[in-house]
Amino acid sequence: EKAGYDHFMIKEIHEEPGAVRDTLTEMDDVMRVVKEIGEVERVCFVACGTSYHASLVGKYLFESILGIPTDVILASEFRYSARALTDRTLAVFISQSGETADTLNALRSANSRAKTLAIVNVLGSSATREAQHVLYTRAGPEIGVAATKTYVSQLTIIYMLVAAMGAPELIEKLEKVPAIMEEALGDEDNIRALSSHYSNVSDFFFIGRGFSYPTALEGALKLKEITYIHGEGYAAGELKHGPLALIDDGVPVVAISPPGPCHDKTLSNVEEVRARGARVIGVGSTLDEALRKEADDFIGLSPEVDEVLSPLVYIVPLQLLSYYVSVERGLDPDKPKNLAKCVTVE
Ligand code: M6R
């Protein structure tokens, strides 16, 4: 059932273009749900882990494109933060499994105070029965403990939601994503080769600004889960407020820098870490000569992908990087120690 792949994780990464394509077929459902929900003054995303990172992208989209104030709360922290939910608040619960205890508990407590929407991959799961509104990601079953294709499907539904709530021009851009992802997957041999330089390091940093900040966090989470290497995601501008003290000779820094308004500032951060000896893995447009020049290793992606769309595409090489580092270290990426696919305890 691994269809010739060594692990479910790599099979599922290869299924990402199809997962985005299938999720895009849900547009009519998204439009229906947006109509049913009615007026929204605030949005509040609630989720854990990878689904939390998808939610962070949601915040950048809702605020920068729709101008709707948006909070993102870890489900396990939801009860400790006194939030003023009202009947004009849309509380969005994102969960691959639809069974995560922290997320379900938060959903239960929000149901009487706000409009609730669950974005879920598993049909008929608890979250789909308890939320007022439901949207499905069409990623198909995900076996690997590390979320991969379900992350890009969650992002796709969030973009579609934003499109339906007032930014229809996003749809045309989204339709190009599966083909661009296929191109990114075509660079697998390069990523496998460069992974071998990083299998013995003890720390990794991932940096990005704006839409690339959640990508940095998600890249670091994947690395931790399946390679057991300490990985930290940072907003690139935060480096100088502390973590720069940890940058030393040979410390790998993955710099996520798609074309767009944040690009030049991220590039200055790359220069800062290089000056302190970091080994930089640049992830940017194939046409980005400046980043390529600063980087020790370079992963090039389609120049068509701008910052707004980048979370969907730039995560693909980071998942591949973690996968190949894990394999290089002789680990089983499908079954990381201490972790379960579905966390049903608080
Ligand atoms: O099923 P959920 O999306 O609610 O799960 C949330 C997290 O437990 C999950 O994303 C976890 O962080 C993954 N192992 C990440 O790869």
TrEMBL record:
Please give the start and end residues of each transmembrane region.
none
Alphabetically list the UniProt keywords.
Aminotransferase, Cytoplasm, Glutamine amidotransferase, Repeat, Transferase
Where in or outside the cell? Cytoplasm
Give the EC number(s) under which this enzyme is classified: 2.6.1.16
One of the protein's GO biological processes: protein N-linked glycosylation
Q: Which GO terms describe its molecular function?
A: carbohydrate derivative binding; glutamine-fructose-6-phosphate transaminase (isomerizing) activity
The lineage's top-level taxon is Archaea
Q: Which reaction does it catalyse?
A: D-fructose 6-phosphate + L-glutamine = D-glucosamine 6-phosphate + L-glutamate
**SIS domain residues:** 33-172, 194-336
Active-site residue list = K341 (for fru-6p isomerization activity)
- What cellular-component terms does GO give this entry? cytoplasm
What is said about its interaction partners and assembly? Answer: Homodimer.
Described function = Catalyzes the first step in hexosamine metabolism, converting fructose-6P into glucosamine-6P using glutamine as a nitrogen source.
Protein's recorded name: Glutamine--fructose-6-phosphate aminotransferase [isomerizing]
Q: Which organism is it from?
A: Methanothermobacter marburgensis (strain ATCC BAA-927 / DSM 2133 / JCM 14651 / NBRC 100331 / OCM 82 / Marburg)
